[in-house]
Amino acid sequence: MAIKVFIKRHIKEGRVEKAVAMLEEFRNMAKKELGYISGETLINHYDFRSITVVSAWRTIEDWVRWQSSDKRAGNEAKIEEMLEIPTKYEIYDIGRPKEKPTSDSAVRHADEVS
Fold first, then answer.
1. Fewer CB atoms < 10 Å away: N or C end of the chain?
2. Paired sense of beta strands 88-93 and 3-10, if any
């Protein structure tokens, strides 16, 4: 089942332009990953330092594989330096709700990033 991942960040003053450029770069990397469907960057109309990246993935396992990759970890470390508060992740199933997540690793990982 396809999922959408909402990654919410609040950027430090004076760092927004650089952060948005980095997020675009990171998306270009994710586009090459197995299971990636699409993504977009949303900038809050009333608080431009509040940025949400939304990405769609074929399965939770595809997302978990990308999220836990060394390639992504290096990028996250760079963006974390620009944040006022820690990144918040929200993962949503697309379509019908299901009774429980498909795998234990996805459950643990989703809990860890909330």
1. C
2. antiparallel
Question: Residue 10 and residue 103: Cα distance in Å, rounded?
Answer: 31
Closest by alpha carbon to 52, among 23, 25, 75?
A: 23
> Pick the residue with more confidence: 107 or 23?
23
Residue 113 CB coordination number (10 Å): 17
Task: Judge if pTM exceeds 0.85.
Answer: no
Q: What does the block give as tokens for 32?
A: 């090459």
Please, are residues 62 and 36 in contact by the beta-carbon 8 Å criterion?
yes
- Mean local confidence (pLDDT), 84-100: 87
Instruction: State the chain's mean pLDDT as an integer.
Output: 88
Domains and CATH numbers, the chain: 3-113 (3.30.70.100)
Q: In terms of residues, how long is the chain?
A: 114
CB-CB neighbours of 94 under 10 Å = 11
* Contacts of 2 by beta carbon, 8 Å cutoff, 6+ apart: 37, 56, 57, 58, 59, 93, 94, 95
Beta bridge partners of 52: 8, 42
